[in-house]
Write the structure tokens for this entry.
Amino acid sequence: MFFLGKGSCCFPSEVVGVNVGLAFLDGTVALFAFIQLIRINSRNAQLGWTRQKVLHLLIGCSNIGYFAYFVLTLAASCERWLCWSHSCGFILMAFPKILSFAAFLLILSFWIDLFHQDDDEDYEDEDFSFQETLLDRALNEPNSTHEDSHRICLPLRSIHVESRQKLVILVTLLMLVLMVAFSVLIWIAIGNNSVNSSLLATVYVDIFATAMLLLGLSLACYGLILWLKIRRVRSEITSSDMWKVAGLALVSVICFSSSAFVAYFTKIPVLYYCQQLDKTGLYTCFLLILYYFIGSSVPSAFVLWITRELPLPAVNEEIPQGWTSVSSTAISIYKLPYRMKHSGFSLHMLSTKKQFVPEDVD
């Protein structure tokens, strides 16, 4: 898609229409993500960057990247931009995928937190709500004037990130480094006839497709486990939340598997220009929809849909509303401990810095 030689030409009208449609859909998803981010931040701005805010930011930036990619792909093909084949197209194709990968990896880390909180002593005092602060700043607890001035000068050193959040950051950085390394190799291969630049891009796409497939399977496994645990809580509230967990797990594994198989068995992600399109372009359109719309746009839109409910204002912190994609009341925090205690399933669900104590029940 980004290796445009001297014989390149504009795409068939069907392929152009699909690209325009995908660009419009991704732009719409990005717009909703940023609007929702602004609304969430207006409710709890003093909490800083929570996992819910970071999730919406990643989804918004990812879909903005896809929007730019589809628009510039058409321009690069018709105008025959030489820079498009010199890693520029590769980077613009790969970067949005990495952001989307990081967003769903963040969801997986939250589900793992929920699943392992009974076993991890380090998390006994943590709030596992998606409203919890992602980065705890030691600036909020100064010990001395000297330390205060030191932290103000070096604010990054005062940021505390939990272990599973560190893993999300580490894996994302690893994928970014891998993308940069392959883009450099592709740039070098352009001037070296002995190296096939399209083969390098294919290798990267296969590696990334494997990572996305594993992520989808992991979300499916943990989603199933959490769904089974939520089933033990008999209430109308938990019923809707239970299907949100199951829905996200099912959507993730189906969509990520579909895009991975397209990456494995076709050249759609890395190489499609006029000479390699089918005569009508319909088969190419189908693969584009399967890889980009089903593989990226649908999961992102589904996450935005199930997280559309806003948290309560910060002034009402006694019983905050949890992250609805996992469970607003059934699994995240606050109201669930008491219900699960009487259904045979106990979790240490704590609110931000405070444990919620249910009222006495006869």
Summary: Residues 1-8, 120-128, 133-160, 316-362 have pLDDT under 50 and may be disordered. Residues 197-230 form the longest helix (34 residues). The first strand starts at residue 136 and ends at 137.
